[in-house]
Structure formats: structure tokens, C-alpha cells
Amino acid sequence: xxxxxxxxxxxxxxxxxxxxxxxxVAAHQKLTRVWWERRRKRFDxxxxxxxxxxxxxxxxxxxxxxLEVLRPLPLLEIxxxxxxxxxxxxxxxxxxxxxxxxALYIALATIHGMDYLLTWNCRHIANAEIRxxxxxxxxxxxxxxxxxxxxxxxxxx
Length: 157
Hints:
Layout: E1 4-7, H1 9-16, H2 23-38, E2 44-48, H3 49-55, H4 60-70, E3 75-76, H5 80-92, H6 100-111, E4 116-118, H7 128-140, E5 147-149
Parallel strand pairs: 1-2, 1-4, 2-3, 4-5
């Protein structure tokens, strides 16, 4: 059985975007493409309606490319339990109210038993300063959160 990975929108955006002039963003885009070519088949990939909705925004051509990548992925249901956990992550973990969608990404991956949450959002999701608090809130409610990481961290050997 393959490990399950929930793809947050930033991964698909980096995968399908034109090369950035920003060196760090360009490097993240390249790492994402390498991960997609070499590693994605080792995982069962998932997304959600929240990811689809976010990916559909902005430039029509870019949105079309993002949605093409997401189309074959199974969707995780946004449940009441995920909504409650997301709310608790905002109240009890250092995830600000303005980042409540990021809390919902974490909650969805947790509630649905994902092994990994793959993201380039290092401000509110793949953030070492909040991981312990997220794990504590999830654990207090009987859940084990996924490993929250970037494609670079999930590159393997």
C-alpha cells in the first residue's frame, strides 16, 4: 500500500507555473517538477474541493493547467469534524484567523488519515514553529496529524 499525500494548492501552482524570476521560487518550482517526475507515483495523491476552488482562481490559462493536474485526484470530503478541528487549530495553535483555510488543509489531511500534507506554504502550514502545537491539538482530539512537508523534504534518497 502506498503512502497517502494530500496536495495543497501551492504545490500544484509551483508545478504548473511559468518559471519565476525570484531565485528561491524558481528553485522551489524546479524541485516540485523533479518530485512530480520522480516521486509522485510512489504515493496515492489526494486534494479537496478547497484546493480545486483555490486552483481555479486567477489567470484563466494558469487555472486550466492547475485543474488539469488536479482532475484525476480523489477529493477529500470537507466534513464537520474537519471544520471543528480547523477551528480548534486557529483557536489553540498559532495559526491566525486570516489563515483559517490553511488550518482547514491541515484538518482535512488529519481527519482523512493522510500520511503527508505536501505544501510550499511555509508561513502557516509547513512551519517548524507551529508543528508541535498542531500535533498537540490534533493529539488532544485523538488524531495523528500527517507529516507536513515540502516536496524537497519528500524527495527520498
